[in-house]
């Protein structure tokens, strides 16, 4: 990627210093950077002491066989003990761990003491079903407390879990069961989605008819919706039959720090899903530290809410393992943001007095589209910090979030990381960093990240290229389940000795990092590399645009031509001059080279179930090709609507 083309594109100049009060009481101060700089491994050894170890580790990192890392290898611990029991032993058994809010409005709160009993019973039940240390358990569930209980029960007995997002099909579930060779599946009859019960068990039944799933001995079914459920005698068991009658005591056994904790599949753009393997001690150390540092969690007073699904890594690290290891009180919400009305999330914030909120840019842009008046109807004054994850956040969305959700005076932390990194890697520290809307800014203390060019050379400030991680980190993936070679090829072969994240990035004049989207999404226009993210952010900065997706379509003159799909804000009309106005606006913000050749107003954009825009499909449309695989789209009819908008479409 050429440096000069990216260097002058970003024009964001706004800065937001940490609120003085937060800075004065922040969990982590600027000293952390210095101490980690001085002794990186010593810094992580110190963070590992946040946890309760059965055997304290004496060795921090074993990097004798890179890139296969071992962290804290001679230490032993139990993850569930760290997330539950130790808080009860410390006298905090009465503290709420989970405020559950069901979509239909049912709610219940579980204290740490409740969680200890429930997790112990579930662990006893799994043991009774013959699940042994090392056996894989698939979890296919809605967002209910039993999902968290099931994950912790697996961790407690050392059975790695593989959580499969409840929105995935029977096919996707079957491939994941096969690949991990799961022995038990934990599911529910269904969950509530958009005001209706939506079945889950039927997909499990279907998945288990596929070859390669024969080793599944039992399906444990939580009753959530009460809908009719087909039953395979001898295989299927109700959770309440097998768990409720178990003893509420269970002695946790300590496992080695490198014992597998979970497998989580990430689909990526090509090929079969990759089973990302995370282990115990290093993962929990970094999940716990980052949750404490980035969200400034005060467990006695904060109410924390991460809106992700537990089926994604964000849910693993920042609904389950990070917050619970820190003794946090969290909200767990089952449903969609607009059921039964578009203010539902803000109603939940008001009801529980949420202080720390962690969500995704796609959700923020959707709320912007719905209008400022909706959050304005609720009391959001409890919020003291906002987080973002999943995609680059457009500066305009960042400002909107801070203003309309945060009341204009709270820090916004834009956190960059991946399923593979296990925990946050690049993010402002809320009490330290003067935040720049749209930039994840700086690697956290103890993390080494930079931007390199095609030749693996670190770019100077102002330069652009590829994001790489240059030192191992505690919560790094250990391999791809069953495929070490693919682990090496995917992440470690592009740049010798460095982890290749697959994201384009640039460094600004201060050395802060800006993420520019997946490298497959960078466009080449007349010899210039232009990031889809930057053009999208310029479009979203226009008052008439709510959302934008930009792709490079092959073009005989310019190699690629910029083609933009935009969703207009509520009141904006699709009139004659609009397209010219938007082109001129982008030209003014980024320079004439970045002006889209075509701009198409559309009603919806194609998104994956985790909310990422599928630019590959838009490229197919822009290049008049037949559409590629649409199976991971939330709603495949979106593509037909978009195709109809094209000039010349039938
Ligand atoms: C990819 C990883 C990490 C949890 C959710 C996604 C993109 C993630 C940011 C951010 C810019 C971001 C990257 C990354 N991404 N956070 N703050 N700024 N891009 O996990 O599904 O493994 O996706 O999400 O492209 O590589 P994932």
Automatic annotation (TrEMBL):
Binding positions for Mg(2+) per the UniProt entry: 540, 542, 545
Residue span(s) of domain AMP-binding enzyme C-terminal:
534-612
Q: Which reaction does it catalyse?
A: acetate + ATP + CoA = acetyl-CoA + AMP + diphosphate
The residues covered by the AMP-dependent synthetase/ligase domain are 90-473
Assigned keywords, A-Z: Acetylation, ATP-binding, Ligase, Magnesium, Metal-binding, Nucleotide-binding
Task: Give TM segment ranges.
Answer: none
> Which residues are reported to carry the modification N6-acetyllysine?
612
Under Pfam families, the record lists: ACAS_N, AMP-binding, AMP-binding_C
Family per record: Belongs to the ATP-dependent AMP-binding enzyme family.
Name-wise, this protein is: Acetyl-coenzyme A synthetase
Species this chain originates from: Streptomyces sodiiphilus
What is the primary gene name for this protein?
acs
């Amino acid at each position: 990627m050429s440096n000069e083309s990216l260097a002058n594109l970003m024009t964001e100049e706004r800065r937001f210093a940490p609120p003085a009060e937060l800075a004065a009481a922040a969990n982590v101060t600027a000293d952390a950077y210095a101490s980690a700089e001085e002794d990186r491994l010593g810094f992580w050894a110190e963070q590992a002491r946040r946890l309760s170890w059965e055997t304290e580790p004496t060795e921090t990192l074993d990097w004798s066989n890179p890139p296969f890392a071992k962290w804290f290898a001679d230490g032993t611990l139990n993850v569930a003990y760290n997330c539950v029991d130790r808080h009860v032993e410390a006298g905090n058994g009465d503290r709420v761990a989970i405020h559950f809010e069901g979509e239909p409005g049912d709610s219940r709160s579980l204290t740490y003491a409740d969680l200890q009993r429930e997790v112990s019973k579930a662990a006893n039940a799994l043991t009774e079903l013959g699940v042994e240390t090392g056996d894989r358990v698939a979890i296919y569930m809605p967002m209910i407390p039993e999902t968290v209980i099931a994950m912790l029960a697996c961790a407690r007995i050392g059975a790695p879990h593989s959580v499969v997002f409840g929105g995935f099909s029977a096919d996707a579930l079957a491939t994941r069961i096969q690949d991990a060779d799961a022995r038990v599946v934990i599911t529910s009859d269904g969950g509530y989605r958009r005001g209706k019960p939506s079945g889950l068990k039927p997909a499990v039944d279907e998945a288990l008819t596929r070859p390669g799933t024969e080793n599944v001995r039992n399906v444990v079914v939580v009753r959530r919706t009460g809908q009719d459920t087909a039953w395979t005698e001898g295989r299927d068991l109700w959770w309440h039959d097998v768990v409720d009658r178990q003893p509420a005591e269970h002695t946790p056994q300590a496992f080695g720090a490198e014992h597998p904790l979970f497998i989580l599949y990430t689909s990526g753009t090509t090929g079969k899903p990759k089973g990302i393997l995370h282990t115990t001690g290093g993962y929990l150390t970094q999940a716990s530290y980052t949750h404490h540092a980035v969200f400034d969690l005060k467990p006695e007073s904060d109410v924390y809410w991460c809106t992700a699904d537990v089926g994604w890594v964000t849910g693993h690290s920042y609904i389950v393992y990070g917050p619970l290891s820190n003794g946090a009180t969290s909200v767990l919400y089952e449903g969609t943001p607009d059921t039964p009305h578009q203010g539902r999330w803000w109603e939940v914030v008001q009801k529980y007095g949420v202080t720390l909120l962690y969500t995704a840019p796609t959700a923020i842009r959707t709320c912007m589209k719905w209008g400022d008046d909706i959050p304005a109807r609720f009391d959001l004054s409890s919020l003291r910090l906002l987080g973002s994850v999943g995609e680059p956040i457009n500066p305009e969305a960042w400002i909107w979030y801070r203003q309309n959700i945060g009341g204009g005076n709270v820090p916004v932390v834009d956190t960059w990381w991946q399923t593979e990194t296990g925990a946050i890697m690049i993010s402002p520290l809320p009490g330290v960093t003067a935040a720049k809307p749209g930039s994840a800014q700086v690697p956290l203390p103890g993390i080494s990240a930079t931007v390199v060019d095609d030749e693996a050379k670190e770019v100077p400030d102002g330069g652009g290229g590829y994001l790489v991680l240059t030192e191992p980190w505690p919560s790094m993936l250990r391999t791809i389940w069953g495929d070490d070679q693919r682990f090496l090829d995917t992440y470690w072969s592009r740049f010798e000795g460095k982890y290749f994240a697959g994201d384009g990035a640039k460094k600004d004049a201060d050395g802060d990092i800006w993420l520019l989207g997946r490298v497959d999404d960078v466009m080449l226009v007349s010899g210039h590399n232009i990031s889809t993210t930057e053009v999208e952010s310029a479009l979203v900065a226009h008052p008439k645009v709510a959302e934008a997706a930009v792709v490079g379509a092959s073009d005989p003159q310019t190699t690629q031509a910029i083609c933009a799909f935009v969703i207009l804000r509520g009141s904006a009309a699709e009139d004659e001059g609009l397209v010219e106005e938007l082109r001129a606006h982008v030209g003014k913000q980024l320079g004439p080279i970045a002006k889209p050749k075509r701009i198409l107003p559309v009603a919806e954009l194609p998104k994956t179930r985790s909310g990422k825009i599928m630019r590959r499909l838009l490229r197919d449309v822009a290049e008049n090709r037949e559409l590629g695989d649409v199976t991971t789209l939330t709603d495949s009819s979106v593509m037909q609507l978009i195709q109809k908008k094209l000039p010349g479409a039938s």
